[in-house]
Amino acid sequence: METASRNIVVGVAGGIAAYKACHVIRAFKEMGDEVRVVPTQAALEFVGKTTFEALSGNPVSTTVNDAVDQVQHVRIGKEADLIVIAPATADLLARMVQGRADDLLTATLLVATCPVVVAPAMHTEMWEHPATQANVATLRARGIVVLQPAHGRLTGSDTGPGRLLDPEQIVDLALAAAQGSSFDTSLAGTKVLISAGGTQEHIDPVRYIGNHSSGRQGFALAEMAAQRGAEVTMVVANSDALPTPAGATVHKVTSAREMQAAIMEHAPGHDAVIMVAAVADVRPAHPADAKLKKGRDEAALESLALEENPDILRGLVQARERGELDPDLVIAGFAAETGDAEHTALELAKAKLERKGCDLLMLNEVSGNQVFGQQRNRGVLLARDGQQREVPDGSKLEVAGVILEELLRCLERRRTSSQDK
């Protein structure tokens, strides 16, 4: 889906993660956007001016005293459709809160009326310091999107929250913010368990039964939930190529039975479970210990005996009904449907919602390879109370935002219902 070229300002503060800004710049340029890089003077200690100019195709300056006849900070700020700051240091956050205009970047920010997305990067102690957290809260209250940083390796041998998100994450989240996705913290204090990826059922040590799921929608939901303040746990099947959502705890599995065990182990104590993973319906009844050979094991390959996998979504609902899980637990599922000669995909999804007994069901019509492995998604969101919501075509992060709004509605409704009893 083609989009019009945007004027994007990439601000870069002086931190070791400044080199990742180069990948952010290149990603926007490859989308056809016009990019203007505005670094701080400290940023140029880490990445040279020549590099930023070569990648963006535009001149680079750090001061309002350059190109005075053009009044740079006013022109750049007014023309911007989106400003992305990556990395943002603790010092820059503090200067933004104070409304400083002591370099081209901060002066530009005071002029801009477009969405501003800030990707912090600093040591854990600096990120968690009360002053920094107060600055983050102030910026968010002013409508600036301050992303949650990643957890991981920092400068030196330390590990913890404060690592800059991967460039791919920054770009995708920034574009979601530009399209109006909410980044409020309404999920703060909420614990969400999300499954993602596609399970694999081994036929022998080198072959398996699987599907085309990339895990992108599950990871997008986890990313958006984490950015909105949720404590996120993931159970992931075979999606190692995707970056870990900010602060999420990830448990890796391979098969449907492994996923079932992990989901049932971690579901207690959560407020919501979202089953996004594409779980194989069947598995080989007798997987071989050694590779099946053509000719020698022809019969085994031609008549592969299959048996059904557990229905994890239905099992969650039944566990809630038996009192083994919190009665207020919200359970959401996905339906990948193609329709058939007798029923539309929507009719099949409605029947599945009734059969499974979950609170929400997102219908993805997957005929023609419309969803699996793609960057975008769309569908219909069905609720247990009969409500139906069209989810328009958008990035998987944008679709995740719509799903989370409905999830919040379900959480509030179930909690209100419990309080009234």
Automatic annotation (TrEMBL):
Q: Name the catalysed reactions.
A: N-[(R)-4-phosphopantothenoyl]-L-cysteine + H(+) = (R)-4'-phosphopantetheine + CO2; (R)-4'-phosphopantothenate + L-cysteine + CTP = N-[(R)-4-phosphopantothenoyl]-L-cysteine + CMP + diphosphate + H(+)
> Which positions bind CTP?
D281, K291, P310, D311, I312, L313, F334, K352, K356
Listed Pfam families: DFP (PF04127), Flavoprotein (PF02441)
Using the record's annotation, list all stretches that form the DNA/pantothenate metabolism flavoprotein C-terminal domain: 187-408
**Any GO CC annotation of this UniProt entry:** phosphopantothenoylcysteine decarboxylase complex
What binding details are noted for the cofactor? Binds 1 FMN per subunit.
Keywords attached to this entry: Decarboxylase, Flavoprotein, FMN, Ligase, Lyase, Magnesium, Metal-binding, Multifunctional enzyme
By its UniProt entry, which InterPro entries does this protein fall under? CoaB-like_sf, CoaBC, DNA/pantothenate-metab_flavo_C, Flavin_trans-like, Flavoprotein
Please report the stretch or stretches of sequence annotated as the Flavoprotein domain: 7-175
State which Enzyme Commission number(s) the record gives: 4.1.1.36, 6.3.2.5
Role description: Catalyzes two steps in the biosynthesis of coenzyme A. In the first step cysteine is conjugated to 4'-phosphopantothenate to form 4-phosphopantothenoylcysteine, in the latter compound is decarboxylated to form 4'-phosphopantotheine.
Q: Which PANTHER family match?
A: HOMO-OLIGOMERIC FLAVIN CONTAINING CYS DECARBOXYLASE FAMILY, PHOSPHOPANTOTHENOYLCYSTEINE DECARBOXYLASE
This protein is called Coenzyme A biosynthesis bifunctional protein CoaBC
Q: Which organism is it from?
A: Corynebacterium pelargi
The encoding gene: coaBC
